[in-house]
UniProtKB/TrEMBL annotation:
PANTHER family: COBALT-PRECORRIN-4 C(11)-METHYLTRANSFERASE, SIROHEME SYNTHASE-RELATED. It comes from Pseudonocardia halophobica. The keyword Iron-sulfur does not apply. This is Precorrin-4 C(11)-methyltransferase. Residues 2-208 form the Tetrapyrrole methylase domain.
Amino acid sequence: MTVHFIGAGPGAVDLLTLRARDLVAASPVCLYAGSLVPPEMLELCPPDARTVDTALMTLAEIVDEMVRAHEHGLDVARLASGDPSVFSAMAEQMRRLDAAGVPYDVTPGVPAYAAAAASLRRELTVPTVAQTVTLTRIAARATPMPEGESLEALGTAGGTLVLHLAVHRIDEVVKELAPSYGADCPAAVVAYASREHEIVLRGRLDDIAHAVHEAGIQRTAVIIVGPALAAEQFPDSHLYSDTRCRA
């Protein structure tokens, strides 16, 4: 018996990896966050599978479900939105499974920021413009940020900044980033990336908050800030350059 932590991707079922699809189809138990994982993804589960919405459950209750499945010899598909390596709360679940002696593995998924960049039709790393992508969030009412990882501090590094779990505090985000990026820095917000009701907003730091409020976006969105979003005049990368030695 194994608990399979599975990246469910940004929402579109056809963005699941083949491995993820097969694991869900073979697992008698599926734990998922109903607020993030679309219902149609559960259609991949076996017809008689036990499906458990974890959206309102505590960590202890979630782990209890996994341990109970382990005791009955049942594999568990633990669906995490996007990719489980980022903001999935997987680490704390693994820690408890280790203590309980329950085996697990991890299947990566398409991260939300990648789906957002695809919708924007933009590369987040552009030659001489931005070669660093920072993935972060804000504290708000969630777990405190570590020392030195405030938006103000991260903004001074430049590059492309991607924020998860922060669109409900868009005004605060703009206020903290404007001093380092500038009010005219390109910015975008993509809500429900890859889904039928996807919303794509493009603008600048000085007007993106207004656009978010107008669209009524409160959750399930990625904020992207940085000059790479509007870069047009830049040199070709060395990767395909005529001058690159290919011997």
